[in-house]
Amino acid sequence: MSYDKMAVCYDTQSCIKCFACVISCSTENRMRLQRDYNYTVEKSMVEEQPHLNYLRVEVNEKGKFPNVSQIAAFKHCQHCDNPKCMEICPALAISKKETGAVVINQERCVGCQACKDVCPYDVPVFSKDTGKTYKCTMCHDRLTAGMQTACAVACPSVAIFSGKQEEVISEARKRAEHYSKVFNKEYFVYGADKVNDTVGTLSYMTIAPVENRDDYLLPADPSSGVAGGREITKVIGTAAIIGTAAAVAGHAVYSAVKLSGKDEHKENENE
Amino acid sequence: MKLTRRNFMKTSVAGLAGAAVFTGSPLKTEAREITSADFGVENKTYLTCRMCAQNCPMVAYTRDGRLVRLDANPNTPYPSICGRGRAATAALYDPQRIKTPLIRTGKRGSGEFRSASWNEALDLIGNKMLQLREEGEPHSVAYFPRFNSASLLDDTIFNLYGTDNLFSYGDTCFGSTNQLGLGSVFGGGGEEPRQGNSSVMGDYENAKLAVLIGRNPVGGLVAFPWGGMFGRGRKNGMKTVLVDPKKSLGVGETDTEWLPVIPGGDVAFLVGLAGELFKNKYYDEEFLKEYTNADMLINAETLQPVYLQEGDDENDPDYQVYDTATNSAVMKSEAESPALYGEYNVDGVKAKTALQMLIDSCNAFPIEKAAEKSGISVEQIQKLAKDLNDTRPACFLERGYRATRYYNSLHEKQLISVINGLLGVYGRKGGLIYGRYAYLYSPFDYSDSNEISVNMWYKENVEGFELCDPYNMRRTFPLAVETEEPYKLRMAFLNGQNPVGGSVGGHKMAKALEKMEMVAAISPFWNESLLYADVILPDTTFLERSEPLFGQYKATFPVITVHDQVIDPMFETRNGYWIMLAIAKRIFSDDEYYSYFGDFEAGGVKYIVDYQLENLELDEADAAIFSRRKLIEDGVWCGVPAPVKPMNKPTPSGKLEVYSLFMAKWHEELLNQGRENDAKYFDPLFSCPPTYYQTLKEKLDNDEFVPITGFSPLSSFTGAQTRNNILLRNVGAKLNYSAVFINTDRGNALGLKSGDLIEIFNIEEPSLVVKAEVQLSETVEPHTLFSFYGVGNGLYRKLADKLSVASPIGFNPNHIGNLNFMPVEASAPSQDFIVKIRRAK
Q: Do residues B823 and B411 lie in contact, with contact meaning Cβ atoms separated by under 8 Å?
């Protein structure tokens, strides 16, 4: 089955910072634990599991009283067109889907954190409890089932919306243009156009005033911390580890199929 | 049609086929997407969210009897559930819920309890209530309802049992201050004009400028429909100005002007703003002439109307104006061209028009003084006045919500409503629009033969309580317990209410509870007050029970919602109806029980719903489109919005009273009684009465602050449904929401840095010391010590092991505040005191 190219957009202007999106993301991920790992809902909902908040809040404050700016930015996977994490992942656990979603296959992740080191946006989070790395999947399972992302569906103030890429971009540009006019300053849609050669365009876009781009963690030239010596060691080391793990588990054939790159991510299978 | 269970099933099934052709919806419902969850594997239940008090329409999905997902009910124009609602699963499955009935073993406040059977616990309560009734003192039972799960039935049971002592939380929230603040301008019929929070609401979606003062609609978030309306307003390009001692995140981060007001300086700011509006004629003369009493002739000495003809069933009220066509004082109804301005001699009386009186009162208070007293610069006040003029009538000043903050809050609310009148924004697109409601009635009997309630006795007999709202008041409880007037209170029954954590002067509430012969409580979660209970009965959460229809929404159109049970009660919890009936069986004779509650026992919540539907009261326009089937299929029904046009209101003058005759009357009355201090707070003119804390001290010391508190959208009230919630805390920790926030420079001057532990105490109650983490921030006005409300365990450290997700420390100003009362209207000045801080030892 083929899917349309999808996108999500976050509008900083109509956001009321109620964090319903963050909670919804977190509960959706806990639901996935229930679905995929036979976790009981009673347990999944009351455990800390902070790595399941794929939208992370980072508050920054600038200036002096009373001329102070205070911004709670959301840090999340931008779903780059050129995902550096996918390139570097030694376990081939990361794939870019037709929808545009960049997804870590948790079954295959070995927790080497190479993706974390190389991510231009410092997004993936490693959990010591599970030994794996996590980040936003753009609700790939929901999108391919015809639903909105968990963050978009949660938003009471029409500040996050998801859908077909061209529709999302068109709505986003319309809003940015309107804000530029009303507030007499330039608003832009970060990620609708190519950001730079490193990341390309983004499937998770943001509408913000250009002058606040850094406050909203939207760098003009995001650079990938290209894997240096430390990372290379890690890559080689972990590649060896998965080789061993696969052999030990007797899953060599299974892995070979999965590694062909054609498979859909596990999260689709149950929808 | 009588709604039987079979019919209910039938209509539910018919829903899928019928929805497509149903065309009765008067409002543009946003395109509702059918998702996979609409079909097959997941069971869908409509209910309302009770993570705070707003009952936002919600839908729950279950699989195998377990809750798997919560969403906003999509069948409204503003489908909205905030983060708290979405985190309800963590409250439902909270392992620290109260799971069985509990009986106290240690001393009160120690938090030591043992498990008990339902019978043992219920008998203890029932026997005590029976004893009090047999002794002829059922009125000595004080009932404290709040987040309870037996609405309509519970207060009936207490009333029929023989007590009218219902202590409600309104005095710390919407109570008298907000009601009278708007009512004084808007009218309300009768001697005490009261208007609810939703009488008028900002038309956010169409507004060009919203001034948020005394309320942060995002912190104290009402997701449905305000959150949705506010967000859409921002999307449409609405500009916001925030007048608040703390800059908040949610009202706009990049294009919002923050006017950091000194705590309680709001009134000075409003007087300065009005002065600018007058000076530049930035007001709507046509609106004032047509809809307000700006042209009324006022006696400049007494501040009373020169002549007012009261209205009756046949005639509208009329009053004297100065007719410039004939140069004489005549009745408004006969005047050709009533003057808006000027001073006149009317039969030897020095008279001015109401508008002239207002203008002159502002002239006496120059803008420089307003700036000094409010902390908001002259330039900012001038700019705002101009911006309001440029955008009116598509602008408004929010009139606040949790209004009871300082002694002068009533005057503040009045002035806000007056300024909105000057700007002519009532009933205008983008201004303030009127709310409309559906009225639902209760099937239960009431007894009016009981002893006078404590609150009514205070209202009728005690100076300072004349304008209190006896139905929304709880802080008289400790007074009555201490003085044993009007009689001795012997038992307290807490049903979901937490008076110790929720009302300012909480420590005195706790002391009063300690004096009770018995304290019984019903609650799903631990809170401060439960530490003082003798018997605790474990309630269900809102997901584990059905409730009657609900219709009290803060919306511009009537809304009715259904609330069906989502999952079976967990642990040994029971829903409130079951509990209340079990108590009723123990305190009433068989005959009484079956005559009062026999029908309900047989029919359950559906008996109430049927009654509500059969007696539903709707306006004609709504009745024409009401559909019981639609309500049940969609879980919610929305009626027609109120027309957008100014309306005359039931004031003494029959007009919107920019010059409040209610205030003028009380001002005179209080002066006649020699109560000059109280009279200051009832001035019909623009003036600047002080807060309580300003009467204590002219200037705060280096280590002194005013304890401002506000909601975070991640917490609500004092309930542990949000306080002990891991999903909310994961996010709240990123905002450091359990810390207290002070201005960076002021913190530095005290040698403090972010993360330090400090001790906080009320300078009038130095023995009560609370520990908290301090965070220095440039987003705090320098006089202010800001804390998010209801987050930490505060003074009540014994709660720490019962609510281990919540911060073990943290500051709740209620715990250590004063038990004083707003002048004459007697609600709670919740943050009107001074605290000192010092580095914790």
A: no
